[in-house]
């Protein structure tokens, strides 16, 4: 009967795309390495090794500096402030980090209230966020969060989840400069370079919460009062209410969720803060 013949022939062919997809998933799982976050213990699969990831981070950083060359601040109190806070946070991060970071900062003159940190520890701060940060502890909240994305290798985790890993690892186009502009933008977005470079791969809620959690530990371990993080996020939320949202919080958890999570992590952070001050009493 014709209907039987049709079924006989149709089945194997409908399986082909499924088998290809399954093969790709297995290939990805086989080639990916699993990493455990030294601060939270969360495990994640990453599509790039630290060297590949840092190389892309460096290239993305060079691209941002080239694009913003005219607005890069070279000297002055804003640079000093960002350097001071970054140095303290870097020491705090190094206590548990499994990868060595060569932290570097660029401050860009702009009304944008944003900051990001690319893989390998390349930090970009837009001056617009400094008044919202208000003080060193506020800036430590911002930078601790961003540095935590880098030390948690969230960029590599996002790239693993995307098809684009195939291009990076399998193709001839090993560097950003060789890629077409769309691919370059997607990768830069995945690495965390802000909406300007494509928000097609935003950090996941899980990654955002993890960056909040680790950022809070970093700031407390660096000697900043972790409760200041809550004040900072209230200021950011007020800006949102005034119709002046910051890109920094655009794909982050809702304000209520964030504050209740920060409160839940506060005892752990306060312990770090107390330990810091027992080692180095405030002058
Ligand atoms: Zn974030």
TrEMBL record:
<keyword id="KW-1133">Transmembrane helix</keyword>
<feature type="domain" description="Peptidase M48">
    <location>
        <begin position="82"/>
        <end position="265"/>
    </location>
</feature>
<comment type="similarity">
    <text>Belongs to the peptidase M48 family.</text>
</comment>
<keyword id="KW-0812">Transmembrane</keyword>
<dbReference type="GO" id="GO:0046872">
    <property type="term" value="F:metal ion binding"/>
</dbReference>
<dbReference type="GO" id="GO:0016020">
    <property type="term" value="C:membrane"/>
</dbReference>
<feature type="transmembrane region" description="Helical">
    <location>
        <begin position="12"/>
        <end position="30"/>
    </location>
</feature>
<dbReference type="GO" id="GO:0004222">
    <property type="term" value="F:metalloendopeptidase activity"/>
</dbReference>
<keyword id="KW-0645">Protease</keyword>
<dbReference type="InterPro" id="IPR001915">
    <property type="entry name" value="Peptidase_M48"/>
</dbReference>
<keyword id="KW-0378">Hydrolase</keyword>
<keyword id="KW-0472">Membrane</keyword>
<protein>
    <recommendedName>
        <fullName>Metalloendopeptidase OMA1, mitochondrial</fullName>
    </recommendedName>
</protein>
<dbReference type="GO" id="GO:0051603">
    <property type="term" value="P:proteolysis involved in protein catabolic process"/>
</dbReference>
<dbReference type="Pfam" id="PF01435">
    <property type="entry name" value="Peptidase_M48"/>
</dbReference>
<keyword id="KW-0482">Metalloprotease</keyword>
<keyword id="KW-0862">Zinc</keyword>
<keyword id="KW-0479">Metal-binding</keyword>
<dbReference type="InterPro" id="IPR051156">
    <property type="entry name" value="Mito/Outer_Membr_Metalloprot"/>
</dbReference>
């Amino acid at each position: 009967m014709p209907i039987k013949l049709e079924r006989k022939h149709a089945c194997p062919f409908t399986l082909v795309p499924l088998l290809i997809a399954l093969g790709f998933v297995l290939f990805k799982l086989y080639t990916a390495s699993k990493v455990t976050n030294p601060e939270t213990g969360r495990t994640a699969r990453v599509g790039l090794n630290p060297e590949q990831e840092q190389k892309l981070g460096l290239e993305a950083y060079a691209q941002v500096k080239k694009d913003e060359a005219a607005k890069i601040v070279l000297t002055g109190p804003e640079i000093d402030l960002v350097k001071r806070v970054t140095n303290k946070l870097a020491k705090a991060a190094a206590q548990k980090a499994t990868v060595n970071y060569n932290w570097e900062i660029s401050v860009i003159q702009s009304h944008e209230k944003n900051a990001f940190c690319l893989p390998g520890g390349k930090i970009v701060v837009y001056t617009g966020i400094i008044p919202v940060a208000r003080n060193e502890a506020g800036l430590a909240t911002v930078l601790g969060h961003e540095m935590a994305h880098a030390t948690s290798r969230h960029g590599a985790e996002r790239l693993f989840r995307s098809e684009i890993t195939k291009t990076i690892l399998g193709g001839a186009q090993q560097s950003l400069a060789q890629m077409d502009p769309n691919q370059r933008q997607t990768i830069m977005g995945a690495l965390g370079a802000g909406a300007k470079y494509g928000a097609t791969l935003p950090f996941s809620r899980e990654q955002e919460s993890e960056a909040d959690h680790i950022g809070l530990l970093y700031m407390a371990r660096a000697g900043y009062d972790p409760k200041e993080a809550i004040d900072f996020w209230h200021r950011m939320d007020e800006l949102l209410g005034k119709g002046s949202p910051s890109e920094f919080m655009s794909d982050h958890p809702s304000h209520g969720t964030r504050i209740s999570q920060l409160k839940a992590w506060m005892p752990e952070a306060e312990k770090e803060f107390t330990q810091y001050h027992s080692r180095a009493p405030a002058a």
